Amino acid sequence: MIKMENVHLYYPLMGLKSHSFQIAVYNKLGGIIGKKNDSSVQYVHALRGINLEVKRGERLGIMGHNGAGKTTLLRVLAGVYPPSSGKVIINGKVTALTDFTLGMDPNVSGLENIILRLIFMGYSYKEAKKAVNDIVEFSELGDFIHFPVRTYSTGMFMRLAFAISTHFIPEILLLDEVVGAGDESFRTKVLKRIDELLSGAKIVILSSHDLAAIEKYCTSAIVMDHGSIVFQGSPSDAVKYYREMCSKANE
Amino acid sequence: MINDIKFVLKRWRIVHALGISRLRERYARSKLGQLWLTLSNLVLIIVTGIVWSVIWKMQLDEYLPYVGVGHIIYLFISQTLNESTGIFIADARYYLNQYMPFLMSVFTHLYRSTLIFIHNIPIILGLVIWSNSAVVRLNISFIFSIVLLYIFLFCNSYSIAAISTRFRDLIQIFGLIFQLAFLVTPVMWQISFVPLKYRDYFMLNPLAAFLEMIRNPFLGIEILKSAYLSAFVWTLISILISVIIHKKFDRKIIFWV
Q1: ipTM for the complex shown
Q2: Any CB–CB contact under 8 A between A75 and chain B?
Q3: Is A80's CB within 8 Å of B166's CB?
Q4: pTM (2 decimals)?
Q5: I need a labelling partner for A189 at 20 to 30 A (CA). Which of A122, B69, B135, B194 fits?
Q6: What is the mean pLDDT of each run of 10 residues along chain A (251 residues)?
């Protein structure tokens, strides 16, 4: 179960003027030795009073423009960003599949990368070794699996990353866009795997611009705008609301 | 902080995988691979050993093991600290996509540094066996020194990494500090060259204190009492600073990377 109560997040904008030690010191001393320079850290109010409850078996879709706070919300749920205020309660092990290639090393073979990636996702060597055969078969890489990953084409690399990352079905799954990898023949396999993954996980949070995917996979959906939830309801209603919002913005 | 340490230790496999893969990255596709670590150090030591033994008018038999063992240990300490400035920034992608305590990078960094150090142990052994004047005296206080050094490196790597992530120009400043530290640390010269009444002051430099404590047992040279005191106090200070930084800022680092 996931529960968010009145969650706010202020995101400090680093790197504008505030990454410099001299400037920070100068500002602290500013009142004493000179004019105070107005370059204090600026904040973005990235999440504004988010209230959300996702129960077991639910699959929640998140829609919104770029910068509406979708990724930030996913990161708060993954435990990456601590909320500035409010409460986040999560029961269960969260697996964020926002980057399928995390932990992979281009200098070693595909086989070793399978182990590396699974270790990174928190599995033991034993579990990883057991999974290798299935993953090799799924990825259809053939003899390439023995070659260093840097020799792969982008498509092959994504195929391998997808095969590994989706091998185990997680308890709570956070997904940023439904990824499609590979050519036409591989795509049917990918879609089947995604079906298994989404129906197998106990809770799924899917952030996507692909409205059809949200209608297809989700049991409920929210629309975000400027860091707050502006609509919450069934996927079809949410998609309708989002479309209206977009067309209004275009006018 | 304790909880974060437990979290990482439970996931030691990630530390192992990441540590190895960093090392591999650097030497991938070179024929001799990691052997370069050992070779480049060996060449450096032999050249400086010969030149400076002439300058100091010392026997090569005595000076070469001194400068060789000292160099390897000093490089381990100073590079571990200096390179820690960038570890959170380098691992930013991991932290942004999956929850992990920042101590993961610190463990990985220490693990990798240790692996690099292990590559140089043959040089230490070779020098000590080759030289007639070096007498190895490893005892219980040597183990104490090693443990203390690791605590010191662990805490400071974390603190240095955290503040250099926030203030990026500190990366350059730390680089400069460690360059200067080389001059006031007895790597090329011996502490016995310094007049007796000034020797203890040199031990205020933690790098010098730790270097004496780890190097001298290999060569049979006496260790100043002040070295132990300095190392112990510096370690306590380091623990304190890192605990404070962890408590106040750890959850903010993710916004800085």
Answers
A1: 0.84
A2: yes
A3: no
A4: 0.88
A5: A122
A6: 91 69 64 52 86 92 90 92 92 88 88 91 89 91 91 89 91 83 76 88 91 90 92 92 88 77
